[in-house]
Design goal:
Distance between the termini: 22 Å
CATH topology: Non-ribosomal Peptide Synthetase Peptidyl Carrier Protein, Chain A
CATH class: Mainly Alpha
Order of helices and strands: HHH
Amino acid sequence: MNREEIVAAINSIFIEQFEISEDKLMPDKEIFNDLGLDSLDIVDLMVGLQRRFGVSLRENEEIRKIVTLGDVYEFFVRLEAKRGEPKT
């Protein structure tokens, strides 16, 4: 997946699961403060992201550093890049 596909996939989760309009989905928006998600919503978000990207996020400590929607985008761009690297 390229960056645009990753952003579109993540945005679709926010739109479908949380009924957030696409015009509010800007990289600088904070997930809690600006988009209005709470701790229970985060669980739903994680499940949706895990399903969409076919990954487990439970053991990933980087996920705890996410504050903005842009952080979510960058996290999955990096994750996709790592998955595309040849195994050594």
